[in-house]
Amino acid sequence: MATGIRDKVAILGMGCSRFGERWEDSADDLMVEAFVEALADAGIDKSQIDAAWFGTGIEEQHVGKSSVPLAMALRLQNIPVTRVENYCASGTEAFRGAVYAVASGACDIALAQGVEKLKDTGYGGLPQRSRGTTNDMYWPNASAPGSFAQLASAYQAKHNINPEDLKRAMAHISVKSHDNGSRNPKAHLRKKISMDQVLNAPVVAEPLGLFDCCGVSDGSAAAIVTTPEIAKALGKKDLITVKALQLAVSSGTEAGHNSWDGSYFQTTRAAAARAYKEADIEKPRDQVSLFEVHDCFSVTELVTMEDLFISPEAGAIKDIMDGFYDADGKVPCQIDGGLKCFGHPIGASGLRMIYEMYLQMQGRAGDRQRQEDPSIGMTHNLGGFPHQNVCSITIVGREGA
Amino acid sequence: METGLLAYGAYLPVRRLQRAAVAKTHAWFAPGLKGLGKGERTIANWDEDAVTMSVEAARNCLSGQDRDAIGAVWLASTSLPFKDRQNAGIVGDALSLKSEAMTLDVASSQRAGTTALMAALKGDTPALVVAADRRGARAGSPQEMTYGDGAAALLVGQGDVVAKLISAHTEAVDFVDHYRGEDGEFDYAWEERWVRDEGHLKITPKAIKALLESTGTDAASIARFCYPAAGRNVTAMVAKAAGLPEGSVADNLQSNIGETGAAHPLLMLAQALESAQPGDRILVASFGQGCDALLFEATDAIKNRPAKSIATQIDKGRADDNYARYMTLNGLVNVELGIRAELDKATALSNHWRNKDMTQRMMGGHCTECGTNQFPKARICVNPECGAVDTQRDEGFSDKIGKLNSFTADRLTYSPDPPAYYGMVQFETGGRLMCDFTDIDSDPDHQPEVGMAMRMVFRVKDYDRNRGFRRYFWKAMPATQEEI
């Protein structure tokens, strides 16, 4: 009988590069920047790393295939390195690989690292690529905002919501994330914005405007994990441990079966239910201290807060407008600025979220430090499209919490 | 059993280019275009070609007909998308016709439509004759003004015909009024007055007289004379020269459609049939390196009118004065399309073949275990409660009406005509598809909304400019009340 991952693995050290348009830096530079920080934080020598997992999504346009680019950039001498790709969950997948390896006893110390160098693609947003030779023959020529924008039309219709009310709640999400990002020195977008700016911005994919879309950034993040015993033996106190690691992948139901209405993420609901069980969390709205969710678009964050069972169905707009998810609210969401403002270097994003939880729980989050002593943090990634996607969820927290 | 026309239908693209906008743009260089700068013409959307328009005309023609009975498909056009790949075969596929139906492309002349019709009428099997043209013309040319895009389809055979064939006559004369060579992008035409006097007024009356004489038909008995000639009064002058009644001259549709090439004689015939009464004699002729002339007589069955008439399609046209868009979509100006247009649209032909029924016939699956319809058809049933393996039979989706579940208008992704509309269409009898939409009206009062009824149309999915290939698939568009 599987017992889950709860408290079996601890975070030994983490690092995260500054995210943004890093014109002067290569993917290798970004990886080294995050790794050097993580290694110093862990307080170990590079030779103590037994294995590594490398997450990246759009490798054709920067480092190329395989795990070799990570091993070469960091000069990891002939250790096992695995490259993982699972859309925007790639960073979390790398973390999952490293954590499972430690939990299994196959290695003592493992590295998870993600990177994306998106500002060499020449695109303003994510680059347009083939989706596979069969899919290209019948899938619409969809962009990421166009895919996620459809949540709004279906959500509005299902809950009979006035489009203006939805637009305002979405705008509040973006204003909040910009406020948070302004206090984060590593964030890509650090300017505060107003509701009017969001509401009057040019439309990208109806009803999403420019400020409803997250930044497309260069960046890297890394985590070094080990067992709680080894961490303590290395002198670490007040450990942050992994409470849950869940992944849910669409089987084609949303895309092909009429049981899904298009207004929510079936995968997020499945992964969240399993994650709470794995972490032994019964009342997430009361027990989770912080969220970092996959706010690729404002409407994604809105819907996700219901899919994580924090806001009741059709209740997210009220919570958002009440400030429930603001930095000084009951349960902050994207206290570091989120994908929206910290930025979204795909392969690094999942690890960046965990990095924020790790800093917050150690009281090291600087100007944006949450005062209410966070003890449980949940991170969430979505890759793909609302109608067929990969959802990853990680819960980390203080040991024993 | 009478031989003749069992059914007819036509298709007109919804956009109507306003000729005044064209004339105004070119007035600095060609002020003479002002004379042609009246009325409007049909213009195909970026995802339409002779094949897709043929499919839509044929669907309008074949409503209520047994498609399995069709033994041949004749496709006539001077703008076929493929030079070496049978275009009629694509049309037959999109119509889900049986593979035993003979398919044939007829090309290279404005007479292609009528010649195909004459040949099909001589055949011993019910045949679908479809003619279509998407006519290219240089910016600022008279042809750009007078040409139109469209298609007409006729189901030919024996039985309960709406119009019986009395006789047909052809004259092959290599009179070169215009031509387009192997490498030519556009037509090259000689002086209109010469074409009229030495061509239309000499070749056509001869053919008509021969036809009438051979059948002992009194020219005065002709109720309707369908003859495409864009020049002013040319048809009336031909009628006079042939002794046909003045009142028989059919509208050449120049004011609201333009001349649709090889399709035009059949389009005019279809329009005449829409208002014909039993016993009416309809003479259709065409001009192009000679003349074809066919004489039909409407029967009592003519009262069965097609659901989607030409008159309705003329009424539903959308006025379009965006000439810049027309020029852009037709490659008449070199426009910066942005980095997102650079994506390689290569097609793996082996994979294309493996998925041909899915893409061209819109063939999905029906699970015989749980009854769930699904698209695409798969080895394992999509119903999470079922999951049976290898239980699906073919289920066609192209004629199903769907309901809109979610959608967007995307201004980021590349579309030749932004925004790109797409979304989830759910079919009432099961199955759904995230798909492109087409022909969405930009009018704010006609925007898509969740719950709206959608129908599927066969269109070009992507053009592979590097390799000269184009792939087709089905797209959704709002369905009218009559189509539901």
Low-confidence stretches of chain A: none
The multimeric state of the shown protein is heterodimer
Shape of chain B: globular
* % residues in beta strands of chain B: 25-35%
Query: Taking Cα atoms only, what radius of gyration of chain A do you get, to the nearest Å?
Result: 20 Å
Distance between the termini of chain A: 23 Å
Mean of all residue-level pLDDT scores of chain B: 97
List the helices and strands and how they pair.
The complex is a heterodimer of chains A (401) and B (484).
Chain A: E1 10-16, H1 27-42, E2 51-55, H2 68-74, E3 81-84, H3 90-104, E4 110-117, H4 135-138, H5 144-159, H6 163-181, H7 195-199, E5 203-205, E6 208-209, E7 218-226, H8 228-233, E8 240-249, H9 253-256, H10 266-279, H11 284-287, E9 290-292, H12 298-307, H13 316-322, H14 338-341, H15 346-361, E10 376-385, E11 388-398
Parallel strand pairs in A: 2-3, 2-4, 9-10
Antiparallel strand pairs in A: 1-7, 4-7, 5-6, 8-11, 10-11
Chain B: E1 3-11, E2 15-18, H1 19-26, E3 40-43, H2 50-62, E4 72-76, H3 87-94, E5 102-106, H4 112-121, E6 127-133, H5 142-146, E7 150-158, E8 163-172, E9 178-179, E10 188-189, H6 192-215, E11 224-226, H7 234-242, H8 264-275, E12 281-287, E13 290-298, H9 310-315, E14 318-320, H10 323-329, H11 349-354, H12 356-360, E15 363-367, E16 373-374, E17 392-396, E18 402-410, E19 420-427, E20 432-436, E21 453-464, E22 469-478
Parallel strand pairs in B: 2-14, 4-5, 4-6, 11-12
Antiparallel strand pairs in B: 1-7, 1-8, 2-3, 6-7, 8-13, 9-10, 12-13, 15-16, 15-17, 18-19, 18-21, 19-20, 21-22
Helix pairs in contact in B: 2-3, 6-7
